[in-house]
Structure to design on (333 residues):
């Protein structure tokens, strides 16, 4: 019997993957492939909770798959698929929405952030029920562990609550999952506002580094990253910008904060920013090269997502059948 634990995660194809997504999530996924049963999605159903251009979205979904492969996800070890190709995600989401409370969904900080300054009349319901779909993604595969950045912790809590609530009301059904949040890089912040999360859908392209940015672009963006008016490379009050760059360097080199403070003692921000850019460029250059190779090979990409959807659907259909029985629906003949 397969005793490996199950891992599931996903990224929204809502822009180009940033180093925040890479450090906070995707890079850790690759390391888990050896020891776990891994399923990694491109969450296209989630992406449409904010307005998307359909032509661009389709293109971006394929680019994301090429990026997953370029970052080291291996389809012979992990199941890679598009969320919309497995219809049970939407079905389980509906079932779970009937045991979700308005109050708990209203408390989700991502919902509050994304609807800030908007009138109720203009807020899409999908943004509100977004975390229920995420819970469905996870519970459908009985995932044990979910590797994400810190911003998703609250959604994981909700998923655990929904799993427990369902189990309590209808009898044992779902594994209650645990979040897996990295110690360093769980929240990389914006280069233009160090108090804000780095986000791929930010309108200001200088606020994020995408994993396929060219070396000169990476260097330029780091050079103009917002810091404080001081000159010492160390952590401290009001030094969030520098601390963010230190986290990036630490994540890309394995150096501790103390190592970095020691190495840059007496040197200015200019030298430090160039060094941060250099270590990011070193790691991302092969990723970018592999990405363009995969992108050219459409047949291969198609074979990957077709097989991924088949494998995922097999598990998802078994779960939804059990869920429907528990809920009291008549078996489909
Ligand atoms: P969007 O801008 O469309 O909201 P995003 O860039 O915030 O997207 P998501 O697709 O929401 O990214 O997140 C994918 C994964 O990357 C999640 O696990 C999330 O926690 C992680 N992640 C996103 N941004 C960061 C960040 N700045 N630092 C660390 N992890 C991050
Ligand atoms: N909401 C997540 C993306 C996501 C996800 C998931 C992550 C959708 N479904 C299931 C882990 C497991 C985000 O990062 N915005």
């Amino acid at each position: 019997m397969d005793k490996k634990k199950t891992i599931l995660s996903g990224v929204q194809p809502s822009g180009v993957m940033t180093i925040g997504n890479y450090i906070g999530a995707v890079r850790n996924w690759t390391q888990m492939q050896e020891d776990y049963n891994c399923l990694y999605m491109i969450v296209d159903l989630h992406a449409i909770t904010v307005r998307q251009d359909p032509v661009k979205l389709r293109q971006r979904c394929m680019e994301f798959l090429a990026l997953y492969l370029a970052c080291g996800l291996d389809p012979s070890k992990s199941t890679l698929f598009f969320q919309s190709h497995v219809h049970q995600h939407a079905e389980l989401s509906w079932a779970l929405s009937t045991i979700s409370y308005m109050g708990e969904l209203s408390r989700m900080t991502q919902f509050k952030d994304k609807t800030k300054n908007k009138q109720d009349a203009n807020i899409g319901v999908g943004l509100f029920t977004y975390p229920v779909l995420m819970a469905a993604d996870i519970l459908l595969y009985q995932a044990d562990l979910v590797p994400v950045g810190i911003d998703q912790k609250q959604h994981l809590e909700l998923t655990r609550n929904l799993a427990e609530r369902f189990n309590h009301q209808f009898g044992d059904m779902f594994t209650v999952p645990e979040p897996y949040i990295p110690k360093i890089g769980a929240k990389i912040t914006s280069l233009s506002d160090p108090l804000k999360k780095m986000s791929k859908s930010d309108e200001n392209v200088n606020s994020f580094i995408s994993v396929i940015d060219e070396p000169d672009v990476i260097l330029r963006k780091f050079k103009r990253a917002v810091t404080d008016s001081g000159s010492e490379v160390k952590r401290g009050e009001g030094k969030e910008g520098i601390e963010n760059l230190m986290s990036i360097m630490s994540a890309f080199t394995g150096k501790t904060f103390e190592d970095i403070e020691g190495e840059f003692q007496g040197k200015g921000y200019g030298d430090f920013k160039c060094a941060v850019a250099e270590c990011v460029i070193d790691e991302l250059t092969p990723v970018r090269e592999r990405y363009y190779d995969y992108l050219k090979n459409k047949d291969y990409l198609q074979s990957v997502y077709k097989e991924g959807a088949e494998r995922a659907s097999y598990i998802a259909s078994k779960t939804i059948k059990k869920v429907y029985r528990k809920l009291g629906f008549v078996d489909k003949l």
Q: What stands out?
A: The first helix runs from residue 19 to 32.
